[in-house]
Amino acid sequence: MVRPRRPRPEREPPDADAALETAARYLATRPRTRREVQLRLRRAGADEAVIAATLDRLAALGYVDDAAFVRWWGEQRDRHSPRGRRMVEAELRQRGVGREAIEAFREAWEAPERAPGDEHLPADDGARARIALERHLRGRPLPEDAKALARLGMYLVRRGFDPETARATIRSARRAAGPGVEADAEADAST
Question: Could you tell me the fold of the domain covering 16-61?
């Protein structure tokens, strides 16, 4: 049974201090893009002038920085859920990242600068695809069936890897699986 919603009492739009506090609470959980903070303040009912002033103040303080968000997002993807460049770019566009920041991301994607201790993170789409495939298989052996290999290839394509990277990753995994496996013919049929 669905309960009817009670109407919310009318609230005054937040002033500059309240908007800054709302934004700070929103930013406390993880970095956000300028667009995400802007939408959050609109939901809170802030005026456009207050939103603009709050965003400018947060940017001056270094709390809202789309370029830093792009670097953070790419590192998080590499660390927790490797995806191809196309998928990560689409995710960034969904979060309102501007074209300039995405272009800079694209240039740095293939040769990322890693902080000390992050050397174990993948450095290119091939390495990301291998990690994604290993995590998807979760220790199970690579299937021999051409249809199953095709599904694995499509899984990698859906994760944002281009078809050639998906084919090369599956070929490499089949070669690593052991001798006597006809990798090239079945892997080429997989995507």
Answer: Arc Repressor Mutant, subunit A (1.10.10)
**Is the confidence at residue 183, as pLDDT, over 50?**
no
Query: What is 94-106 written as a DSSP string?
Result: HTT--HHHHHHHH
Q: Report the alpha-carbon distance of residue 181 to residue 89 in Å, rounded.
A: 36
The phi, psi pair for 166, rounded to 5°, reads -65, -45
pTM of the predicted model over 0.90? no
Distance CA 95, CA 101 (A): 12
Of the candidates 154, 75, 88, 169, which has an alpha carbon nearest to the alpha carbon of residue 122? 75
Q: Tokens for 135?
A: 């995590």
Residue pLDDT, tens place only, 97-143? 999 999 888 888 766 666 666 667 777 888 899 999 999 999 899 99
The angle at the Cα of 86, spanning 33 to 116, to the nearest 5 degrees, equals: 65
Q: What does the pLDDT look like over 48-69, one tens digit per residue?
A: 999 999 999 999 999 999 999 9
The CA distances from residue 146 to 152, 165, 185, in Å, are 10, 18, 9
CB of 69 within 8 A of CB of 35? no
Interacting residues of 23 by C-beta distance below 8 A, sequence separation 6+: 37, 40, 41, 54, 55, 58, 63, 64
